[in-house]
Every structure is written in C-alpha cells, then in structure tokens.
Design brief:
Pfam families: DUF525. By secondary structure, the protein is mostly beta strands. 0% of the residues lie in helices and 61% in strands.
C-alpha cells in the first residue's frame, strides 16, 4: 500500500512525516467510537546519529477534550537513526467523536547525550460524513 504523507515537520534536521487514514472497519459510530491509523516516517537529515527516546502527544477530540500521552520510544522501540537513516512505524488512535487532532514532539538523544526535540506536525482526524 503506497501512502502519501500529508503532514511534515522538520526540526534540527529531523523530518517527521505523517499519513493518516480513517478506518471504518474499526469504527462503531453507533457506539460513539471512531478509529484512525497513522503512519509516521522519521528521517535523520542531520550529520549526527540520534536515538529516539520518547514521544509526547497532544490528542484533542471534537469536544475540545485534550489527552496528553507520553512514553518511552514508539510502539515498543527506541530506534537509532544514522545520518540519512529512516524509521517507519504505524499506530492508531481511537476517539469518542468523529473528528479531532493530534500533534506533539519526539525527544531524540545524540551520541554525546544531548537531547534533541523534533516536532510532530499537527494533523486532523476526520471521519467522512455519512448519510442516513
């Protein structure tokens, strides 16, 4: 499946690309549940090796309720990216509204221990309109 990355942020030579898709087969609007999957590509355009240490998400639903999610690595991994290296992963986000948004940042660490913050671009979560 070829994905088009719709949202991009570049910080300190680290590019974060996001492609997001609504998953109707995982959603149950009648029960107040909507689900999206997002594909993240990390690209190290700097001249130093970096290791992903943590993620920090701000997830906002259609009512304006904010959920802050923080944790080590991504999907159980703390990948190391050499200069020019990339890392891809896929995860998902459930909401109790048919729209919302996500944004945040990753913390990477250089070989000398210096932390580097890389922005995750804002991206909307929007279920397609349905007719009844």
């Amino acid at each position: 499946m070829k994905e088009l990355f719709q949202h991009t942020a570049i910080t300190h030579g680290i590019t974060v690309r996001v492609a997001v898709s609504f998953l109707p087969e995982q959603s149950h609007p009648e029960a107040g549940k909507w689900f999206w999957v997002y594909h993240i590509r990390l690209e190290n355009g700097s001249d130093e090796t970096v290791r992903l240490k943590s993620r920090h998400w701000r997830i906002t639903d259609g009512r304006g309720m904010v959920n802050l999610v923080e944790g080590e690595g991504v999907v159980g991994e703390t990948p190391t990216l050499q200069p020019g290296g990339t890392h891809d992963y896929v995860s998902g986000c459930p909401l109790t509204t048919p729209q919302g948004s996500m944004e945040g940042f990753f913390i990477f660490e250089k070989d000398d221990g210096t932390p580097v913050e890389a922005a995750i671009p804002y991206f909307p979560l929007a279920a397609p309109a349905t007719t009844s």
